[in-house]
Amino acid sequence: MPWSEFEAEAPELAESGKQLFTQFGVGLGFLATIRPDGAPRLHPMCPVFAEGGVFAFIVPGPKLLALRRDPRYAMHAFPPEEVDDEFCISGRATEIEAAPTVDAVTAAYHTTIPDGSAQFEFDLDRALLARYRARGDWPPTYTVWRAQR
Prior knowledge:
alpha+beta
């Protein structure tokens, strides 16, 4: 499910997640992909919210090879400095080559796109928000969303 449909189904959850991903102005998160041997690999990345979706420009290297081989992913926002709140989405990534979408997401990105980068859209199967009242507080309050099959 694209971000726009998730946002329509769970607007408060989507807004909280987007705020955590973009709390520093630019989108920041960690992207988990699957290595050829089946083990997870974690990469820092910059998600871009545009055109009703969540996108990223992936530079040539292990992250790009992993997404082309196996599109399953998990993406986790950086936690805020003042509290341990968490937001994570997972699903499948699709490489985007349609010029209008690539151009719109490029315009929304915060810097120059490195040569050889590929653009991916990250559809959602699941989202998780963990809210804490204060740093170190336990347990958090969890909100879980799953796409209807």
